[in-house]
Design goal:
Elements: H1 2-10, E1 13-18, H2 24-35, E2 39-43, E3 46-51, E4 59-61, H3 66-76, E5 83-86, H4 100-105, E6 109-113, E7 116-122, E8 130-133, H5 139-147, E9 155-160, H6 165-177, E10 182-184, E11 190-193, E12 203-205, H7 210-223, E13 225-229, H8 242-249, E14 252-256, E15 259-263, E16 271-273, H9 281-288, E17 294-298, H10 310-320, E18 324-328, E19 331-335, E20 342-345, H11 350-361, E21 367-370, H12 382-388
Parallel strand pairs: 1-12, 4-5, 8-9, 16-17, 20-21
Antiparallel strand pairs: 1-3, 2-3, 5-7, 6-7, 9-11, 10-11, 13-15, 14-15, 17-19, 18-19
Amino acid sequence: MIRASAAAALGFGESLIRNPSFCDDALAGLRLAEGLGALVRRTGDGVRIEGGTGRVSSFVNCGESGLCMRMFAPIFALFERETRLSGEGSLLSRPMRMLELPLAEMGVEVGTKDGYPPLAIRGPIRTGSVRIDGSLSSQFLTGLLTALPLFPEDSQLHVDGLKSKPYAALTISLLARFGISIEADPGFSHFQIKGGQSYRSVEYRVEGDWSGAAFILTAAAVRGEATVENLRPDSLQADRRVLEALRAAGAELILQEDSVTVRRRDLKAFDFDATDCPDLFPPLAALALNCAGTSRIFGAGRLKHKESDRAAVLFEELSGLGAAIAIREDVLEVARSRIRGGTLDAHNDHRIAMAGALAGLASESGVRVEGAECVAKSYPRFFEDLESLGGDIS
């Protein structure tokens, strides 16, 4: 939704985004589209975005969306007017230093608060050839891939240590729908971008969100059965790989073209590398609590700079409920545990809140999630959906 909002805002003419999300992060993306001068209207058939209608704003609020800030920074760098990108809550403590030097090398004036938000961006970009570090996040790369096709000259992007490669593939695929062509080598370490391209107005349908659906599918594997519609098993979204973990744990999967059904079976321990899909750590940790043996989830180092230090928070909060959980270097180890119940602090992290709910499903006395309202960041209806499937929510 956020990527489509940016692409539509950068074109001329009106695009229609069907099946839109209105979670807090998506709403931030729409605000930034308006900040680019686009006209945004909610209609009965979706969201209509008309690009090129107004002046670029001098201030935009990214809410708590790290993707919005890191992605839109190079997009606003296309313009001469200085724009201040600010945010709220946990976003103000998320690192932004990885974009300072590359943007400066491209001729952009960029300022941060000791490497953290807010950002002050003044373009225009003067060269599109740069090397960036992709080891912490792919979100800045997403922004460069979105912005540089509008740069007059051809660009070369060299990316070192890229994590979350599926997100880069997702970006390239979406941009192609809006008329943008980008070439990449198989390892996604080098990107060739033809300059002087233009975004076309299109009708685009947003896929269902695998990151949020992973919690419902995991709940089904733990407690019974659920079908999630508008979810494509062949999606490019990184978190589609939750299916691999569920299959490895012994859950029954039924895949249709546009839906996924999960049924509970006897669950066993699993090993899973979540380096390229770190948002799966919370639901998979909750799944592992119900799997015979000790499960290992690799890639825990990717979790430090999320909405919370997720590995540490998962350890602290789940162990407080009775979980046998440990962090060993880059691995989160979770053994089948008898969850007593109690109170879990979400730490203002939407995925921790949802993981706490899953832990509560198999607990003796229930889990109270403090700060549960933070699920609005990505999945406002999470608790309603969980209750509709038979979860005891109060």
